[in-house]
Amino acid sequence: MTITEFIAKTDSFIRPAVSFLNPKLSIHFYSYFRKLFLEQLMMESGFKYNISPKNSVKLWDIDFQSPVFNAAGMFKNGNGYYTVASQGAGAFLAGTSTEKRREGNTKLGIKHPFAPYPHSFVASNWMGLPNDGHLEIAKKLNEIDKIKGCPVGISLSATPEDHGLKALNGLLLGLKAFDKANVDFIEINESCPNVVHDVEISESGLDKNLVDRIEFINKEFIKKQKRYIPVIIKLSNDTSMEQVEPMVDLLLNNNFSGINFGNTSINYEVVNNYIHSDDWKLYKFFTSNFGGGISGFPLKKSSLELCTEVNRILSSKILTQEFNVIRTGGVFEKRDLDISKNRGIKLNQWYTGYFEAFSKYGHALYKEILSQNA
């Protein structure tokens, strides 16, 4: 048993009790030790769990050894590839990165606030995109000796504080740097709820600034590619159904390769219904003081419905390029993966579900999850 496996097993027993402590103390505890846990996790390798070939997925001419891998935010600075590749993850996704290094959010003396709600299978975070910057992360990714079946992806974003051409050029710098670093796919994070966004809604119901970025990426990066790199957009699970079709049309018209639904939720009115009474005090303290994005069980329904709607729209179109949907939110077990597959969703990402599975199975989590009976 590795250090992180021991910690995760121990934490699974003590975590329910932590919910009853002083909320600020609980958040301080988990915000601090989450970082230490991840640092240790990213150093653990030397094992290899073989995933049955029947679980492999091939999209965009890329081989994924399994249909699920980590969501952005887990391995922000590009460390940890050999850990997840050895576990059997379908891919390794670094980031989200920005042009320059970011410290992220601090409030009430708590850096990168995070809280789990163990009775609800939900978590909150208000981190604010802390990362080492495009160039530093690209350098790390370029040094990875890739393992077959575990491609490398990057999530990146325009710097939230930048505007107009400055923001676009910073994004383009990252795209070019990760192209040179030989990443296999790129995810543009357009939905982080923990930073401020400029939003100006157009007649189509889409954000004009987002439309400008998509058109800019197509013109300045996708059309100029010397090698094909799938570029996908990650949007919020709070996206309305009415926005899905105009967004899909926009992406298809601008040569994007896919869409990911999606990021954490700030729709607290809906999430409130999923919070167990034993977690309520901690949850209300976190959302009242930090806000923050919600991950985990409450996103299961919305992520599935939004991704299903994308595939319904695609089925009525004549496609001139490969375009796929990735589901993120509420993915915990084999049944979730099977439901995704039945809806034509071939790739999934997880975050809260990953840590829940790790507490049960340790580094064997992918093998164990994929061998479950639905």
* CATH topology-level fold name: TIM Barrel
Q: How large a portion of the residues is in β-strands, by DSSP E?
A: 15-25%
Radius of gyration, CA atoms, in whole angstroms: 19 Å
**CATH architecture assignment name:** Alpha-Beta Barrel
User: In what order do the strands lie side by side in the largest sheet?
Assistant: 3-15-14-12-11-10-9-4
Give a quick account of the main beta sheet: strands, pairing sense, barrel closure: 8 strands, parallel
The parts where pLDDT drops under 50 for at least 5 residues are none
Task: Round the mean pLDDT to the nearest integer and report it.
Answer: 92
Number of strands: 15
Count the DSSP helices: 13
Percentage of residues assigned to helices: 25-40%
CATH superfamily: Aldolase class I
CATH class: Alpha Beta
Order of helices and strands: HHEEEHEEEEEHEHEHEHEHHEHEHEHH
Structural class computed from helices and strand pairing: alpha/beta
Distance between the termini: 28 Å
